[in-house]
Amino acid sequence: MAEAASQPCRSRAAGGPCAGALFPRQAGMAAPPLLLLQNIALTLGGKPLIEDAELSVRPGERVALVGRNGSGKSTLLRIAAGEIQADGGKRFFQPDASVRYLPQEPDLSGFETTLAFALAGLGPTDDAYKARYLLEELGLTGEESPATLSGGEARRAALARVLAAEPDVLLLDEPTNHLDLPAIEWLEKRLASLRGALVLISHDRRFLENLSRATVWMDRGRTRRLEKGFAAFEAWRDETLEQEERDLQKLDRKIVAEEHWIVHGVSARRKRNMRRVGELADLRKQRRDTRKGVGDVKMEAAEGKVSGKLVVEADHASKAYGERAIVADFSIRVLRGDRVGIVGPNGAGKTTLVNLLTGALAPDSGRMRLGANLEIASLDQKRQQLKPEWTLKDALTGGSGDWVEINGERKHVVGYMKDFLFTPEQARQPVTKLSGGERGRLALARALSMPSNLLVLDEPTNDLDLETLDLLQELIADYPGTVIVVSHDRDFLDRVATSVVVSEGEGRWREYAGGYRDMIAQRGYGVGEAPPDPASPRARAGEAKGPARETKAPAREEPRRKLSFKQKHALETLPARMEELRKLAAQIGAALAAPDLYAKDPARFAKLTEALGKAQADLAKGEEEWLELEILREEIEG
């Protein structure tokens, strides 16, 4: 872990300018950057990973660093922290500023306790009490041995270490990995209150939206900056890529025109215009050197038999270990097509609840009933289904053959690997050599290749980039079966869940309709928070004010309504479906209009009549559903 406090200017020592010399402070001008990267280049394994990247961080800035997995985000952050040296470019750092860096995988080796690890990150003038306080806030005592820590506990210790110093620049690489929702929301509030600058890499959309004020996009070795937070990034990115595609089409047309002149114009003039020949060569080189964007993941879930309408029913089910109740008196009905999200603090019993719902665990009391024809495909949080001795090919084929079968169609394993952004050369690569993002994609590819009508996904968003998350959300929306998903990603739950089951403490679980925001609106407080105490001094003070309390009450009693993800998806897809049904009904009607159809083929006439009735009924149902959703949308939007 790299930490720099009051570092001297390295460029000055080498006879070069410091950031302060490059950007002298003048009256009325913005403060000079605390950290500046210019024209950064780095080659790994013979291939350029970073070609021309820049990063500027001024006092108090909140910068989101985004890009596809493997684009070089973490590498650029390590260069900024001084962890690794770039092949080219310049790194400037204000001599009186301090920086702290949180890597994806914190290394606590060499320390006896978590407190010793946290204290080692402090500077000479920092307060040791802050490290102890932050460890306690994050649920640690400070006496834990690093050798026995889970991934989440190691992450909490590392956060306490970098936050305790209150640095001028804080560089965080996936800080929410392995954290539960209460810890994520605590960290979000803590970072929002910091006075220092922040550069943040994260796959958590809500986290990025709430904290960032500027966005740096790492794309094909280069960076582009948007002076807006992450909420505006995706629309800007799509517009940028569309403009790039238009520019490439113009370049292609110009090359064609020049080639036409070379072929036809030279023979007419009998003399070569060497300048235009040279320009054509330059255009061709420009086209060759244009790096194509990273491909998109292509996800398709293998569908099993249609399950019964009832998928899972729990009737006052309970499960305890010793005297501790994990699930107490829990009831729920999960129907075909439902998308159920499960949230709660680490240790609340989410895994136990999932095992009860899928029949892997029997309740101590109460009744669990599973529907008919269930075929379950699961993705576990720790990716333990991926055996260390497996290669990528073994993981996808089960160790036999070269083919994967998806929905009755055989697909070569290399082609299926390409759908998930793996190269053919990786087919025999051991699973242990994969990065976190690659392991996540491989586990997804394996789970989705198995025929299923019930998908059980435990933290599927871990280590996935934002583009892959988009595709996973679309797959879940289009999946014809049922989905149970455990996740700490609030935005993901808002986009996919039709209901959310939340731990209420002491083994009690409760289901709320809608996504995560809907749950908060109905519940009145977040996951891991204590419910408001009516007898608290704060509540009594609110009662004493009388009218002031009454003016605020409606905001909680009548939360703003919104369309669920399922309703939004239906509103977008129903018009196309209705148009297909209209065309189908017209085609069947035209066939039935043949004057001699009944006399020649009564069976076909009967079949077409039945098909027409079904198409018209489906169309009427679709039109009614669309009309109801459109009216609801207009009511919500005012």
Any overview of this molecule?
The protein is of the alpha/beta class. The chain has 5 domains: 3-228, Rossmann fold, CATH 3.40.50.300; 235-289; 310-523, 3-Layer(aba) Sandwich (Rossmann fold), CATH 3.40.50.300; 533-560, no CATH class; 565-636, Helix Hairpins (Orthogonal Bundle). It contains 22 helices and 21 strands. The protein has a 7-stranded mixed beta sheet with strand order 1-6-7-8-4-9-10, sandwiched between helices. A 6-stranded mixed beta sheet has the order 15-18-19-13-20-21, with helices on both faces. The protein has a 3-stranded antiparallel beta sheet with strand order 3-2-5, covered by helices on one side. The longest helix has 37 residues, at 233-269.
What secondary-structure arrangement, pairings included, does this model have?
Elements: E1 3-5, H1 10-13, H2 19-22, E2 35-44, E3 47-57, E4 62-66, H3 73-81, E5 88-93, E6 98-102, H4 114-119, H5 128-137, H6 151-164, E7 169-173, H7 181-192, E8 197-201, H8 205-211, E9 214-219, E10 222-226, H9 233-269, H10 274-289, E11 310-321, E12 324-335, E13 339-343, H11 350-357, E14 365-370, E15 376-379, H12 392-397, E16 403-406, E17 409-412, H13 413-419, H14 436-448, E18 454-458, H15 466-478, E19 482-486, H16 490-496, E20 499-505, E21 508-513, H17 516-523, H18 537-545, H19 547-557, H20 565-592, H21 597-600, H22 602-636
Parallel strand pairs: 4-8, 4-9, 6-7, 7-8, 13-19, 13-20, 15-18, 18-19
Antiparallel strand pairs: 1-6, 2-3, 2-5, 9-10, 11-12, 11-14, 16-17, 20-21
Helix pairs in contact: 5-6, 9-10, 20-22
